[in-house]
Amino acid sequence: MTKDTNEDYRDDPDHDEDAIADTASRGADRDARSKLHKLIAIRRLAVRSIHLPFAAQLDLEDALDEALCGAVELRDAGLQQAIVPILNVSFSGKSSGAKHYVRKKLASLEAGPGTVPVVYTKVDTDGTVGSLAADILRGCGAKRPYSLSGEKRWDRARQTIRSKGVCLLILDEFQRTGRRPTISPVIAGKILDIVDEGDCACALLGKTEAEQVFASCADLENRLDAPVRMPSLNWLTDSVEFMEFADAFDQALVDADITDIKSGFGDEETAQLLLEASNGLIGQFSRIIETAVIAITREGQRIITRQDLSDAVDDWAVANRRIGYNPFSKNGDDESADQDTPGFASSKAVDDEGEH
């Protein structure tokens, strides 16, 4: 029997046009959401890849470079190596500055086969001699860093430092070594052995709680170099530097094809509120801007407005208890008629468009 090719399926009681359309719509929605999620991931990466050194980070890089450059000479002379303490609160730019320095150095130094002149590693939360040895081995690219017992593992870490030609060892989150008060003096002594015997220079990054570890070993404390200060930025003393930084970050978003024009981050009023909202910490500033970028991406926008910045402060800084209020909301600022124009409705964002 020949099937009628002109059969109208709409007459079929099991045929549901609305259900078919709904299924197709859900599929399209899933595709759209998937594309949006990928775009957000790409833009998050782009924001986090922005590196604009400010004065304190340049001081950090100088201190690391001095320790690195002097390591070979001190080792050859049989003299103790440098120990550079770099301590401050979270989001002050310690880790990002150190990581950027390591990437830059490893890309530029002409290291021999199998050598790693600069090693960055993060201290494990265990805060033991064995875990620190594993951290160092992992940073050096050694296989099976957790093999062997604590002391033997430490001996292996020391041997690896020498065999890999490490000149500078950067230990981040160093305050974790003070987690166990009975162990921290032992760890401090182990670090002292590395520098006293000329293995390599060390930079100890972390929160100020790490000072307790230094205090537990007077010999280590006596050998510390001058600390690198990375204080929070203050509007009265650092306004010019921060406005330049914020403006450069604004331009970087345009260069990364995230926004079409600059949003006025570097304008005086905007910058002052952003500095206040971020507690003077570059890392917090970056997270606020990242939150705003994600929000405008979800909305399909390509410009960051005053309201977007205010919302980002609420969504990230206030919600995560970094600050107890929103500086953008003071004196009813959020209700102003110009809240939806970039850069606080200043003409700078428009004027700068021709520069891109």
From TrEMBL:
Residues 1-27, 326-356 are annotated as: Disordered. This is AAA+ ATPase domain-containing protein. Residues 9-20 have a biased composition (Acidic residues). It comes from Alteripontixanthobacter maritimus. It comes from the Bacteria. Pfam families: TniB.
